[in-house]
Structures are given as C-alpha cells and as structure tokens.
Records
---
Amino acid sequence: MPEGEWACRLDVDVTLYLDSNCFERYDTLLLLDDGCYANLYTNLTKAFKLKIVGFSGVSKYDIYDYIDACHTQFSPKRTLSSGKCERFVGGYFAVIKSRLRSSTCVGESCSRLAVTTQRFFSEAECLGLPYQIYTYPVQTECMRWSNGTQTFRVDPTTTNVTQVDYIMNDKCNGDQMRTYIMSVGWCYELYADRAPRSFKWEARMLGVAALVPYGLTVLINFKGIASCGCIAVVLIPILALFFGSGGAISVGLCGNPVGMCCICPCFFVCAGVLALGLGLNSPVLRYWEIESSEPLRHISVCDTARWQDSTGAIYFYDGALTEHGEMPPSIAINISHCWGTRRKNSVTTLWNDCYFLVRPVFQCDYSGPPGLQMSDDCEEPQACAWALTSGASQYGQLPEPPKVPDCGGGRGLCGFTTHLLNHYPEMTQVESSMDTFRVELEAAARQYSLSSLTADSPFLNLVNPKAEAEKLATYVPIYYLLLFLYVPFGAVCAFLLLLFKGGADQLSGLYHQLLERYRDDGSSSGN
C-alpha cells in the first residue's frame, strides 16, 4: 500500500456478520485504509480494499474488489456508511467504523494496528527522499501482491521484519513460498543502473501508552527505549517500583495518619504526569513525535497525498495565503453546544462552544515573494488545503486568524498537518457538531468561490516547525522532574516510612522480650 509518513491515521474496524440484519456475528477485522487485502471470503475475486472517503459526520468508505493485485476492478465500487449493516464481500455483511491510530491516542476507541513501512530510494545507500513508500500491517494479515499473496510480521523488539511470499497462491498457504528476514533501519541495495537502487524498512511501537498505567508508559514511547531489545529489563523494575511504592504508602497510611503527608502530594504529582505525558494532545508525546519524524521538504502544497498524513514538520516550496496580491478575510466557524460534560449524579449537561477560523491555502500567487518557485501547473493557482486555527472553548477564547509563518528563509509555507482531534477531541464524538462543521466548511468554500476546496480537504497548522518544537521541548524536563518525584522519590519516602514504623515496633518488641527474660531469670535465681 503506498503511504505517507508515520501518521495520525484512521484504520477501518469491520465486524462481519452472516445475516443481512447483522445479528449473527462471524468475525472482526482491523484493516489498513487503502490496503490491498487478499479476498479470503469468495473465489470470484482475488483482492479487496476499503478506502475512507468521508471524515466528517458519518464516515464513508469506498469498497473495491479486484481480479488481481488491486489494479483491475471486478465490479464498480460501492460506498458504505459507518454504523450501518451493509453488504461487505462474498456473502458477508458488516458494520464499519473508523479507529484512530496514533502514538498519543489512549482508550478503547484507538486502533492498535501495528504497521511497518518499506521505503524505496532512487539513490544508493538510501540517500535522498524516498520516491515510493509502502505500508503493511504486521499481524500476519493475508495481503495481495502481483504473483500471489504475502504476510508480514515484526518481532517484539522491532528489530526484524519477516516477509513470507506465497507464490501463485490466493489464500496465504501452500508449500511454494519464499521467506525474507530483513533488519529494521538497514539499507539494502537493489539495482546499480536504475531505480530503485536501495530500500529500507521502518517500524515502531504504537499505542503502548494505553497498555500500562499512568505516566510511566511515556518512557516506553520514547524512541530510544522503544527501539531497544532490552525493554523488558527497563519496564519490569519500573512497574515493580511503581506498584511497590503505592502499596507501601497504603500500608503505611493504614497504621500511621502521618502517611497522608506522603500520599497527598503524590496525587498532585500524578495529575501533572498524566496531564503532560498522556492524552491525544500531550505536549511531551507531541514533541517526541516531531523529533522522531523525518521532515518533509521541497514538496508542493497541492501534493496532498504526500503530506496530509505526516506527523512531522513540512516545508513546502510553494504555497500562499494571498490571491491576486490580497489575503482573503478569514471565516469564523462557531459551533454552540459543541460538546458537553455531565458531572457525576447530575442531570445537567455543561455545554462548551467551539471556535474556528479558516483560510484557503493556495498553491501560489503571482504577487508572492520574489524568486518564489512556480510549478508547471501554477498558471491558474488553485486552493488545495485549509489553514485552521481554534480557540479555548472553556474560556470563550477566540482564535487568531491563520497567518504566513516565518519559515526561516524558506520560499514557501511551512507547518504541520492538523486534525479536529488536535483541537477539540470531544467534538469528534458529537455527530451533530461534526455535521455542522462540515456544512459550515462547505459554505466557506462557496463564499471564497473555490470549487477545489471541500469539507474533506486537509487542514494545515501554519507555524514555524522549529519554534513549535522548542516550545514543546520546555515541557520535557518538567515531565521528567514530576516523574522522578512520583516514582523513585515517592517510593523512597514510602519505604522509609515503613522502615521507621516497622523498626520502632521491632525495637519495642525486642525490649519487652528482654524484660521478660530478665524477669524469668530473676525468678529462677530467687527460687
């Protein structure tokens, strides 16, 4: 599957049923968006794939079936809707929904699909930008390729990728197969006289933060430890220390009210660790994500397929917020009763509003800065993306309009991709708010008289990537300090409390034993 960079991506959750009412459950699938899967459910076709085509409101999915490796369609595509019982492939029916796959996503609604990417380079030694990128799931799913089927898996230490090709076989079985074991990060040479001249594999762990309690898990997401084969050696002592300190504090508290002085600060420190180290918009995780992602450079704003899934910095060689030398006014999208919270044992919902400002991002403008590189198809500049900003809904804070960032001397725009999940995560769970946002965005496109922009066009956060990373980096030492106070320091305090309490009791018991012994000795000598 051709893919972009490591991403905040949506995967497709499919629940299969045997009947048209979706009562008799058969199986569950977690599929890669636009992945070419071997069709194991019918002999009429060789492969199928699902592609997410609607991201706002009720999600939409195009389903295709093929007679080869996802090149020649067997029948016209069908569009399915999220949450509805509809015909899938073969004789099966399905209910489909999207799941977010991200290193910062926490909770049951997140995707735990592990993937690997294969990057092909036109230069030897994997130099330059890759010109072809393929992403594969690594739970040994049966994927289609030109001469049969294949599976992929990554070992627990993310050291090796194992690829098994089943030659001339449609179901990932049979005796005629080839197995390749390749090292992650190692550059393999291919052809000396033509492209591709080299390739390499990449893999990383996702979603670990949802599997282990509290802020300790953020350490596991750190790129240095996540790629280390000795992760168990690091994880087990940390978990033992964490649970040991919690248990020690509880024991100490039961017998000594002074223990409250130790346990109360831990709650506040723990809250700080959770706020900084977990959640979709964690500044610490976002900083590590930016640092571990390769920046995209010398790319066009209108080449959205290459950048819309990137998690790192993007430096475009073109892009403008002006049209005919003038910047169109930003359009406000304000959604009242955007999302709500309800306190425990309360029937009243506290509603929050959402505030957005949007501007179109054009490919270029003739009156742009001198020396701006123009692409061949820039004679009629088109709008390709939305520049999006938002405000703090809890305080009614209105956002600043999108502006041209200082890109450090670059000729084009720069920034990051952004999603509604990065602005108002709670809003994405309210269907009426998502529908309203989509309608307002379509109205904004009509107001700008731009047919090339739709509600499905990607969003950009136009900022200086280096300045943004430096701002996020300030949270990292604070996080480490809180983590130290929460785990090692808290554990030491707890165990000192226990030693003091246990030592005093033991000394008192020993003293009474000595008194009893002397009394017995005195009684014996008196007789």
---
Amino acid sequence: MKKLSGQYLYIFLLVTIILLWSYGWVLTKMGLSYMGPFTFAAFSLAP
C-alpha cells in the first residue's frame, strides 16, 4: 500500500476532526431534548 504524502495526511486528519466535532454537536442537541441545559452541563462535567 502506498504511503500518504504529508499534505494528504493533514487533509484526512482535518476532515476526521471536523466530522467528530460536528457529530458531538448532534449528540448535544439530542441530549438537550431529554433534559434541560443546566442538567445536561452537570452530567457532562461530572467525573
């Protein structure tokens, strides 16, 4: 298998980070439909 050049690797990593970040936003919106924002923040910050 060919090794990716540096530029393509950086683009792949950037796209991966963007997808993970946007999926986190979707999960937050889904969680807020079940509980209030302060309760959600308390659960997300709980150890």
---
Amino acid sequence: MLLYKMIDKAIALLPPVRKCRRKGSQKLYDNNEAFRREVNLILALAFGEEYLKDSTFAEQIEPILDYFEDSYVGRPYGGKRRKRRFANVKWNVIKLVLSDEPRTSNSIESFNGQLVRTIAASHPTIWKSIEALRNEFAISEQKVSAKWGGEKTPQRGITYRNLDARLKNTISRFEEIPVID
C-alpha cells in the first residue's frame, strides 16, 4: 500500500498529469479507484521489461497516455512504432533494482548542492571553482579510502530499504502478475 501512496505522490508531480487535472480529470482520479489504479499502472512501465506490449487503455486517461506514448513507448504508425523521445535504457530501472543500484540521481544532486555550498558564491571566479573542486576531490578520496579500509558507511533509511525489497519482490514475480487489458 505504501508503494501506491508513493506512486500517487509521484504522479501528481508529472507535468502531463497536472495538465490533465486542469482539464477535469482530477475529480475522476480522486473518486474512481479503478481509474486511479489504471493511471498508477502507467508508472509501472519503469519497472517492466525493456520491451513493451501493445495494450488498450481507458478512454478517460487518453491525454496522459498520449504523453507517455509519445515520450516513452512511441506511437503506432504504419505497422511500426514511431521513435520515442526517451529510449528505454534511459528510463527503465529494472536492472538498477535487481543490482541494488540507486534508481534516482539523488546522490548527484547531493554532490552538486555540497559543491555549491563549498563555493559559496553565485558567480565564482575560475580559481575559486578550481579550489572548491580540489577540496571536494580530497573529501571524496578520504571517503573512498575509508570504505576500502572497512569503515562502515551510512545505511539508507528503513523505509527505503523496505521499498527496495518490495520492488525487487514485485519484479521477481513479474511473470505471475496477470496482464490487464
């Protein structure tokens, strides 16, 4: 159930979903459990195999599906599919989940934030930027040396570890889950 709550929050942030909400789909999403589940299943594409099977979807979610089809699947055209905006290898996270790798770029964002705080200037000189990069590189080397030396690294929170376990379990049972037409 936590996964569905997280998906509900994540889907609210997607620009096409916000656009559809303005067009009146918000009430349908809030009041219709079946419709909400179908919308949430769209996000499950990120955890599917690298090939996508043709499916039919409910008419009410057509604006959302149009966006996802153009961006992530590719529209049918003359017996083929048009080129999608984003290739599967860029957005599909199944391999990351199975290999216990992060599914997001949060660590990169964290590093960028730390670098901005280290520089402490909105338009630093090239020399100040180089010095900040040297300092960050030295800190990174210390962290790597400590890890290789056997020092314990901070663990992720229990909520995220539980979510990772549930996602891995869902992916391992992928073939057992019935196809929804």
